[in-house]
Every structure is written in C-alpha cells, then in structure tokens.
Specification:
The chain is α/β, with parallel strands linked by helices and 563 residues long. It folds into two domains: 3-314, ABC transporter type 1, transmembrane domain (ABC transporter transmembrane region fold), CATH 1.20.1560; 334-410 and 478-562, P-loop containing nucleotide triphosphate hydrolases (Rossmann fold). 64% of the residues lie in helices and 11% in strands. The protein is built from 23 helices and twelve strands. The strands form three sheets. Strands 6-9-10-3-11-12 form a six-stranded mixed sheet, with helices on both faces. Strands 2-1-4-5 form a four-stranded antiparallel sheet, with helices on one face. Helix 20 links the parallel strand 9 and strand 10 (510-515). The longest helix is centred in the first third of the chain and has 50 residues, at 52-101. The chain is elongated. The mean pLDDT is 82.
Amino acid sequence: MHPLLKLSSLFRPHKRQIVLCQIALLLGVGLNLIGPVLLAYAIDENIPAGDGRGLLITGALFSLVLITNIALTLWARIGAEKVAQSALVDLKKELYDHLLDHDLSFHDQHTSGQLITRIQGDASSMRVLFTEVIFHLPADLVTLIGMFAIITIKAPNIAILVFWVIPIYIVAFLLFGKYSPPFFMRVRTVTSKLTGFLSEYVRAIPTLRSFGRIGWAIDQVEKMNLEVFKRQSAAFLIPPLYFNTLFFVRALGFSGVLYFGALSVESGEVSIGSLVLGLGYLRLMFSPLMRLSFHQSTVERAKASAIRIAGLLDDHPSVVDCDSPSQFLALTKAIDVENVSFSYDSDALVLKNISLSIKAGSNVGIVGATGSGKSSLLNLLLRFRDPKQGQIVFDGVPLKEISIASLRGSTGLVHQDVLLFPGTVLDNLGGDRVLAQRALDLLGLELSLDSNLSLGGQNLSRGERQLITFARAIVGDPSLLILDEATSAIDPATEERIQEALGAILEGRTTVTVAHRLSTVRGCDNIFLMSQGVIEESGNHDDLLKKGGEYAKLWELQEGAIS
C-alpha cells in the first residue's frame, strides 16, 4: 500500500466534517462557475437592450454569488484546517508513542534529532498536503469539468481557443512529476541529518568547549550546511522554472483567446459576452491547474515524508510480549540465567554462555573491566534486549513469557548517567506526593517536592541529583532493584551517604549492583566477576579474597590506589 494511503486512516474519525466541508467547497465552485455566465448575460442581453432594471438584478445576483462563494470557501477552509490539525496531533501522538514503545536496538540506530524531525517536520508536511492539495482536488476537478461543459455549450468557438493550452500543461506537469521527486527526497535526507547533528551537539556545547572542539563542530555544521545548500538549490530551482513556463503559457493563452476571439466577434461568429465568458473561464481554469502545479512540489515533499513516517511506523519492536504474558508482581524464589549468549547485531558475542542464579531477597554484585558484559547482562534482565541463545527465568517462568510492563513496573533502575526531567522534584518522582515524600525520607534527602529542577537539576549538586534518581527508582516500592554504576561518578563522601541510605531501602528487596569500585559491592551476599563476556569468579567478598584470583588482584590494586 502507498505510504500516503496508509496514513489516510488518520482522517477517518473526521469523515463527517470532511464531507460537510467538501459540500460547502463544491457549492462555492458551482457559484464560481455562474459568475462569468452572469457577466456574459449582462453584456449580451441587458446592455444591448438598455435594460437598466435587468442589469441591476444581474449585478445584484453577481454580487450575491461572489459573497456566498467567499463565505462557503472560507468556512470550508477553516473546517479543513481544523481536521488537518486534529489529524496532525493524532499522528504526532502515534509517532511519539511508537518511539516510546520501541526497544533499545532501534534507538541505537537513530539519533534523537532524526526522530524529532520525523515527529515535527515530516508530520507537518501531511497537514499541508491535506489542506492545500487533497482537500481541494475534488473541487478543482469539478471546476475544470463544469467550466468545459458550460463553455462548450454556450461558446464552442471560444472553447477551442481555451482548450489548446491543456496539452502543454499536461506535458509540463508530467515532466515535473517525473524528474523532481529525487531532488526533494535528497533535500529531506540531508536536512534530517543536519537537524539530528544540531540536536545532539547543541546539548554538548559545554563538553565541546571543555575539549576545544567548538571549531570542529562548526566545521561539521558548515559541511552539512553546504550539502543542504547544494541539494536545496538543485531542488528549489526546478519549481521556478516550471511555474514560469506555466505563466508564459497562460500569457500566450490569454493573448490567443483575446486576438482570435476579437476576430470572431468582428466576423459575427461569437458575441462579446461569449468572448468575456471564455476569458473568465480561462482565468478560472488556471487557478486549479496552477494549484495542482504549485503543490506538486508539496506532494513530492509530503510523499517523501510519508515514506519516512510509514517506514518508522512499520519498524516494529523486536522485544514484545507473548500472546498471554504472565504478570510479575514480586520476586519470591530466584532469577536464573541459563546458558545465555548475546551480541549486538554482529557475530562477536558480548556474553558467552553465561549461567548464574540470584536468590530472592539477596544482594548481588557484578564487577569487571569495561566491556566485560556487565551492563549487557542488566539489559537482558530488564528485557531491554533478548539473548541470542539461552533464557532467563524469573521464579520458574521464562522472561519472554512475563509481561514487560509488569516486569519494569516492579523493578527499580538507577543508571550511572543522571537524567532528570525539567519540572519539579514531584514530577520526577511520578506525581504521587505520599509515595514521593516516603522515598525522599528513606534516603534522608531534604528537598521540597515542589522544588524546580531547572535544566534537568543543574541547580543541584551531583550527589543530590543522583539521590533523586535513587528516590525515583524506589518510589513504586519495587521488589527488584538494579544499580548500574550508580555511585561511580560521585565523590566518596556522597557515596558513603548513599550507602548508608541503601541500608534502609535494600531491606526486603532483591538487589543487583554493577560497579567498578569493589568497595561498592563489598557487602554483597554474592559477587560475580566478569571478564570478556564470561563469569571468571563468584562468591562473597571474603571468599574471593581467599581465592587469590582476579578479584583479589583488583582489590589490592584499588586499595593500594586509595592508600
């Protein structure tokens, strides 16, 4: 199915409004066609007969037709705009919901800037397509058919003079439609690339300044701007050439009708009114033809946008619920990782035949060098991704058979990178004042729930921001808590404060802690040391030190560095 047809479902809830607006627009078209007929009647009948009263009536009818046409057309356009805006809101919501529901592998392949362009720029192209092209298409066709029918009946000699421009229009229209689309598609592609770059790097200006990379960023933008300039120059020079050709044809058409029509009037073959009728309809004929021509570029841009939007909506998540998923409320027995292997869309395995067990209510630590697979394992536990081989089992139920929403709703997650949303502390903690205040109290964090977190909490210390992420993780009283390098980027004093608070919030929960600093996991019931995608050692802190293996060496190195 064509992408534009796939998106037509957005307008189905508004069928009644669309039909009413179309009727109003078609009535306006009918009145518009009557105008030149009334003018011709006044010239051929009222004026030669000296019928002043008849001329006054004809003039009044002409004015009434004109005013009514304006009123109907205005009402129809306002209604069409309301429909388009409503459909646009629905489309943006659908796109946004789709992006929120997608899995991590999708977001690995698309920058936030590219996705914002899809939601904002591409979606807006659909509005222009509907209001300026599709909505007017039936009325334009009725205008052309009605005009040709009336002028053929009333002034066949003039009709021949009017119709000769149509083949030229058709040829120009087809050529433009054939050769312009690739140019507009390339414009959308490079514009999206530039928007994505700006979205990512404007946020990174402080980092760019810190590392002296502002000049590099400017060079990159200049290169992209130059590419956009070249593509847009090629694409947007085509419409002026095309439209000026049409204007030239229109001028020739008026000149031809006026010249040969005057000769026909002189010879008595047609009346002056018929000539005026022909000129009036020639003017009307150019309006829909020019609208179709003018908006052909809009159609091409909208088609390119529709292809991109449809492609985005057709890209479905790979991590989805099974047909009848089980609900996960709390971990009561254990999490079993059974012979799990995993890779990121390549042959190189990040996890290699991993097997481990996490008992309910235990505090488990996972340590290892960067790239050893720690965070990848956490992604599998939360089912952000699925393993290539093996399975993960929660209380005897395979993870793929558990509702994703219930799993994540019963799990608290704290990342190393602090991400707070603009708004108040309460906004960041879910909106329930009782639960939010309880979470802050458990952490000993003395912050007002109504405190404004400007710029994502930049008005707070790093430790306070990190504590808010802990509060956010426990506000729903999850049975499973996952800490992914949650204290690696804060100072020892703040870490000690968090560790003290953890004593209160970990009680009765199953906790999985990923850390580089071994002191963070020292008190865990069980510690897994990972290396190059496999588990090298496991046991509690004292047992691992007694083994004298890699864990003991790492502990000695870290303790020596501290001392």
